[in-house]
Design brief:
The protein is an alpha+beta fold and about 280 residues long. Helices cover about 30% and strands about 20% of the residues. It is built from 8 helices and 10 strands. The longest helix is centred in the last third of the chain and has 24 residues, at about 195-215. The model is unreliable at about 220-230 (pLDDT under 50). The protein binds a DNA duplex (14 and 14 nucleotides) through helix 6.
Length: about 280
DNA sequence: CACCATGTTCCTTG
DNA sequence: CCAAGGAACATGGT
């Protein structure tokens, strides 16, 4: 699930469920996802704490927690990596194969599962400090965005994945934003014109905002089946619907939605890029 | 067996 | 110190 829009949609969902709930038990099944925390430190901090809020920064979740008798919140940082999911599940539901951390919340469990274990759940907040501006906030401005791009000769697509430039854009929405802005992904970042910078700035915001809207409206399997109460995911059969809105990502060989010519796939920085060579100009 | 996958971090090299 | 390129992390799908 993991680019800014998916994290945002899930954060909004969990925000309705978590506040007020107390952590009565902590089961760390994959200590590596706590890095650099030790399981001991992690468990001691969380045990007995109560969720008070939840927000998002880039692709990170910021869980606000409070210890009993304390007036001060502390923050738990979450990241889904490539394959992570976080949801509440029934106490008696069988744990998923790749459960990384399970928090006992009384009536239900908070499950963080992650097939590849690239994600994190940690008290170490240092990763957030180096993030660039939030793309959907007023902190993200064309002028400063353009300034930052000037300092790099890297291909613009690769630059968009740099979380210190702008926080939350990943491999899917980088391709989508460049298609929308009609800019070739190979173009050097420092060679975009001012007009292109503005278009790209705007395209990033549009693409992310539309994805959040889509994720908020698409039928989600919040309730789940009998064994999986509170499970979060797309409702059955909705995966395609959710991906239809992507205009170029994973569409190599298909006709461009604007000109009809085939979408191409290239590899940049060891990752796939999808684009229309006809519509996206260098 | 080969290659691919929504991400980040570490290590080199220049 | 910085920019850039590549490998590593770990598992599963096709």
């Amino acid at each position: 699930m993991p680019e800014l829009p998916e994290v945002e949609v899930l954060a909004r969902h969990l925000q309705r469920l978590l506040p007020g709930k107390t952590i009565r038990g902590v089961d760390v099944r994959r200590p590596k996802v706590l890095r650099p925390d030790s399981p001991d430190h992690f468990c001691r901090a969380l045990l007995g704490a109560k969720f008070t809020g939840l927000s998002r920064r880039g692709k990170y979740f910021l869980f606000q927690l409070r210890r009993p008798k304390s007036r001060e919140d502390f923050t738990l940082l979450g990241h889904l990596g490539m394959t992570g999911r976080m949801y509440l599940a029934r106490k008696n539901a069988p744990l998923p194969k790749h459960a990384a951390v399970v928090l006992d919340l009384g009536r239900e469990n908070f499950i963080y599962e992650d097939t590849r274990y690239f994600g994190r759940l940690t008290l170490d907040l240092s990763a957030v400090a180096s993030l660039g501006p939030e793309p959907l906030s007023d902190d993200f401005q064309p002028a400063s965005f353009g300034q930052a791009l000037k300092r790099s000769a890297q291909a613009i697509k690769v630059k968009l994945l740099d979380q210190s430039l702008v926080a939350g854009v990943g491999n899917i929405y980088a391709s989508e934003a460049l298609f929308r802005a009609r800019i070739a992904p190979q173009r050097a970042a420092n060679r975009l014109t001012a007009a292109q910078v503005k278009n790209l700035w705007s395209a990033i915001r549009t693409v992310l905002a539309e994805a959040i809207d889509c994720g908020s409206t698409v039928p989600l399997n919040f309730a789940g089946g009998a064994d999986n109460l509170f499970y979060f995911g797309l409702a059955a059969g909705m995966e395609d619907y959710y991906e239809e809105r992507l205009l170029v990502y994973d569409r190599a060989g298909q006709g461009c939605s604007v000109c009809g010519r085939p979408i191409k796939r290239i590899v940049q920085a060891a990752r796939s890029t999808f684009f229309c060579p006809h519509c996206q100009k260098k």
